[in-house]
């Protein structure tokens, strides 16, 4: 019937699916649409990787801990759901690179490892003289002749040489993607670098011209960094959004087993409790491996099983302040892959995010696991703690064991955008458009892994649903 209520189902209750449900509800109210909305989540809690632990006065993030302020959508969502007064910037401070058994200050002006200020690059001990000379060849090298996609590592190695890549670029990029930069797609991760190289020929010169100068800040913002977090932890955003979903049916602990076209134009979603949900449109905010399982018979979508996903673990350690040699003025370090360490990075959380740590305490958050080195994630908690403490004691003096340690494993949680990723995702979307119109995908596996990227994808999925129905 023409006046029949429309039904929209969002599958997946991570930040992408939550965003889609929230903005669908908002559109339904603003446009007075006769729609019924349902959010289905396989686990018994919403939020996906957003997990915050409050213990002994500490606020510990077990998953992501912050988001870039310049990408507006995350802060905008927080403000919309009443968390404006909870937003807090990180404390700006020096970051270090662990290479050749030493902590080296990150060269000032480095943008993802690309120097935009010459003097700090020349004077740093992070690179040898031959390494610096090789990087300077970027000024005279021709533009890349590869017009399609290419490996991120190959692009940077060609411009800056192996030493700068291994000691600076790779640790920074691995911290974001936990991947192998010699497999990651340039066009799906940092296409702006290719555009800069093509426009200015020199990557260094181009980044110097296109990187905006740091704005002059007011005195009370002197030490503010470029990231935002929430004082109560990122899970408070999940709780706030969920609390606003008063016109959405939320089904937790419920898994979608199959999606089929039912009689007419609607879809039927078979749930693990043997119930059927009908939908005029569906947003699948699922990781790529779950999506591949859902469409195991589809030759295009099932290819997502070939897309790698890295396993990682976070290791949060709480200490008394007097038990940690805390003389370094900074917020943490990343580790060169050439170094003989298991940890890949460490955040001095008590310095970067002071609100997370009680007075007189220290909170260190270390990371283990990356592409090609994931077996550590499968070790016991005791073994992981021992490995991390051994690594830390080589860098900074610890005179006592931690008061407590919180280890969180994320199995196959970091999707790898390998070369050709953009084209593969477009093929999948085109395939769905042809064969399952009204079914849309969104999430960290597809078009950006950062929190604002996921929120943007959730909002874009809402626009697609509105256009379709």
Automatic annotation (TrEMBL):
EC number: 1.3.3.15
Pathway where this protein functions: Porphyrin-containing compound metabolism; protoheme biosynthesis
Keywords: Cytoplasm, FAD, Flavoprotein, Heme biosynthesis, Oxidoreductase
Keyword flag Cell division: no
Localization in the cell: Cytoplasm
Main localization (coarse): cytoplasm
GO molecular function, one term: oxygen-dependent protoporphyrinogen oxidase activity
Catalytic activity: coproporphyrinogen III + 3 O2 = coproporphyrin III + 3 H2O2
Cofactor(s) recorded in Swiss-Prot or TrEMBL: FAD
Enzyme class: oxidoreductase
The organism's place on the tree of life at top rank: Bacteria
Pfam families assigned: Amino_oxidase
Domain Amine oxidase: 15-466
InterPro entries: Amino_oxidase, FAD/NAD-bd_sf, Protoporphyrinogen_oxidase, Zeta_carotene_desat/Oxidored
Endpoints of the signal sequence: none
Function: Involved in coproporphyrin-dependent heme b biosynthesis. Catalyzes the oxidation of coproporphyrinogen III to coproporphyrin III.
Homology family: Belongs to the protoporphyrinogen/coproporphyrinogen oxidase family. Coproporphyrinogen III oxidase subfamily.
The name this protein goes by in its record: Coproporphyrinogen III oxidase
The organism of origin for this protein: Siminovitchia sediminis
Organism lineage string: Bacteria, Bacillati, Bacillota, Bacilli, Bacillales
């Amino acid at each position: 019937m023409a006046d029949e209520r429309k039904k929209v189902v969002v599958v997946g209750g991570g930040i992408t699916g939550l965003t889609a449900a929230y903005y669908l509800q908002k559109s339904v109210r603003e446009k007075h649409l006769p729609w019924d909305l349902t959010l289905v989540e396989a686990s018994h809690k919403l939020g996906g990787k957003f997990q915050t632990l409050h213990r002994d006065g500490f606020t510990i993030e077990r998953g992501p801990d912050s988001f870039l302020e310049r990408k507006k959508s995350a802060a905008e969502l927080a403000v919309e759901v009443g968390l404006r007064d909870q937003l807090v910037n990180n404390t700006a401070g020096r970051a270090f690179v662990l290479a050749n058994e030493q902590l080296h200050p990150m060269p000032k002006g480095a943008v993802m490892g690309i120097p935009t200020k010459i003097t700090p690059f020349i004077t740093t001990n992070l690179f040898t003289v031959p390494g610096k000379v090789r990087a300077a060849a970027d000024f005279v090298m021709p533009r890349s002749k590869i017009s399609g996609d290419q490996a991120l590592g190959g692009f940077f190695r060609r411009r800056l040489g192996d030493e700068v890549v291994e000691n600076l670029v790779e640790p920074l990029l691995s911290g974001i993607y936990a991947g192998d930069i010699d497999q990651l797609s340039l066009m799906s991760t940092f296409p702006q670098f290719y555009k800069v190289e093509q426009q200015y020929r020199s990557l260094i010169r181009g980044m110097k011209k296109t990187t905006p100068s740091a704005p002059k800040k007011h005195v009370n913002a002197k030490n503010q960094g470029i990231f935002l977090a929430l004082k109560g932890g990122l899970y408070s955003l999940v709780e706030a959004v969920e609390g606003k979903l008063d016109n959405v049916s939320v089904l937790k602990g419920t898994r979608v087993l199959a999606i089929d076209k039912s009689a007419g134009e609607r879809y039927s979603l078979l749930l693990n409790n043997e119930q059927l949900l009908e939908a005029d449109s569906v947003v699948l905010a699922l990781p790529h491996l779950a999506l591949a399982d859902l469409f195991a018979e589809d030759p295009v979508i099932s290819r997502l099983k070939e897309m790698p996903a890295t396993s990682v673990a976070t290791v949060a350690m709480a200490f008394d302040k007097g038990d940690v040699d805390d003389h370094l003025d900074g917020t943490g370090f990343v580790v060169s892959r050439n170094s003989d360490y298991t940890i890949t990075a460490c955040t001095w959380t008590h310095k970067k995010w002071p609100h997370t740590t009680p007075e007189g305490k220290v909170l260190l958050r270390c990371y283990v696991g990356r592409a090609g080195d994931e077996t550590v994630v499968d070790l016991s908690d005791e073994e992981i703690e021992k490995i991390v403490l051994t690594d830390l004691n080589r860098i900074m003096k610890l005179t006592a064991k931690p008061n407590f340690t919180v280890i969180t494993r994320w199995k196959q949680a970091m999707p790898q955008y390998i070369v050709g990723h953009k084209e593969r995702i477009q093929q999948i979307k085109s395939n769905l458009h042809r064969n399952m119109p009204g079914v849309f995908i969104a999430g960290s596996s597809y078009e950006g892994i950062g929190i604002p990227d996921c929120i943007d994808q959730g909002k874009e999925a809402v626009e697609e649903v509105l256009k379709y129905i």
